[in-house]
From TrEMBL:
The chain crosses the membrane at residues 195-216. GO terms for cellular component: plasma membrane. PANTHER family: SURFEIT LOCUS PROTEIN (PTHR23427), SURFEIT LOCUS PROTEIN 1 (PTHR23427:SF2). Belongs to the SURF1 family. Keywords: Cell membrane, Membrane, Transmembrane, Transmembrane helix. This is SURF1-like protein. The keyword Transmembrane helix applies. It comes from the Bacteria. It is a multi-pass membrane protein. It is found in: Cell membrane; Membrane.
Amino acid sequence: MRRTLFLLIVGLGGAAILIWLGVWQIQRLAWKEAIIADINTRIAAAPVDLPPTVNAEDDAYLPVAVTGSFDAGEVHVLVSQKDVGAGYRVIAPFALEDGRRIMVDRGFVLTTDKDAPRALGPATVTGNLQWPRETDSFTPEADLKGNIWFARDVPDMAQTLGTDPVLLVARSSTPQPAGISPLPVDTARIPNDHLQYAITWFSLAAIWLGMSLFFLRRRRAPKTES
C-alpha cells in the first residue's frame, strides 16, 4: 500500500510540475507576442528626427530620418543570407548636419564585394535605431587587420569608427548605393520558441502520467505462481 501511494504521489506530483512548466511557457508566449507586436508597431511608425540625446532603452527601434554625409571607413560584419550565402553587413560612419557622428548599417554585400569602393558624401537615410545584442562568451574577437567582425557590437564599432554609440539600421537611402541590399530591422530575428517549449513540457507530462499508470497497474497486477 505504501509503495502504491508513493508511486501515486510521484506520478501526480511530477505531472503537475511538468504541466505548470507548460502553462508558464504559454504565459511567456503571450508576453513575448505582446512585446513583438509593440516593436512591430514602433518599427512601422513614421520616421522622426534623431533626438538630441539618444538612449538605448527608450529609443530602441525608433524610426528616424537623418541627413548628412557618409565618411570614409567601414566595419564589415560577417553574416549569411538565405538563398544568397555568406556576405557582410557594411557599417559606416555618418556625419550629421548638427556635427554628431553616428553609425549606419548600410546593408548587405556579397563576400566578393567586401572591399569594393562605395559612394561617400551627402545622403539621407531612413531606418531604425538599434542596439543589437549579438555577442556572447562564444563570439570570436574581431579580426581588425582583416576588418572582419562576427557580431555587431555597438560600443566597440563606435570606438573603431570614431562615432557616437548609435546605430541606425537603414531601411532606405537617397541616393541608394549600388551593390548594397538594405537589411532593415526585422522582429523575425527575435527568438520566440515558447510554444515549442510548452508542447515539450505538456508532452513530457503525458509521458510521465503514462509511465506512472503503467507502474501502478504493474504493481497491482496479481502475481502468477510458477
